[in-house]
Amino acid sequence: MQSKMFTLAGAAALALAACTAKEKPTQDSTADAPTGGVTREEAKAEPDAPPVTPMPAATVIQSQPGPDGSQVDLLSVKVTGDILTVAMRCSSPERYNRESIRVAQISVIDDATSQRIGVLKDNEGNAMVSNLVRSSSPDNDNMMVDCTSKPGVMWAKFPAPPATSATVSINLPGVAPFDGIPVQR
């Protein structure tokens, strides 16, 4: 048993020595050659490669005036499974705006039943919105939005209205309402 351990230890020592041994320079090596056997070449574009196509601009469903001269564009209202996701962007050509929107005041109205639907919460009780800023009370949680000349994207998730509801209205504090918006399913 002891001889097997010495044999294994000897083999391990030889393998380690082989890994740490330094290569001797050959007569063909030059001072400009990279060390470690790595050769680097400049990457060149393939002449037949198709050009990169930019993503198409987002289609705006509806625009409404927002706080401090900003504009809020509604980009999508889509149901996936049992969740309704509303995506928007905020911009302001005048100046830099950073808006704080109280989550408890964000809602979707089911136009068929006039039922108000609040923001969906995850298993930990966090509102499912972009850029959530938690407070000591969930009633005071905020969604932060940058409204600048480079638009800031924001989104919120809600329980989906019934399939019989073709349109919804979306309400955010400080923004004119988005009324009669078709729901994409």
TrEMBL record:
Protein keywords: Signal
Annotated spans, Disordered: 19-71
Top-level taxon: Bacteria
Record-given protein name: Glucose/arabinose dehydrogenase
Annotated source species: Sphingopyxis italica
Signal peptide start-end: 1-17
UniProt xrefs under PROSITE patterns: PROKAR_LIPOPROTEIN (PS51257)
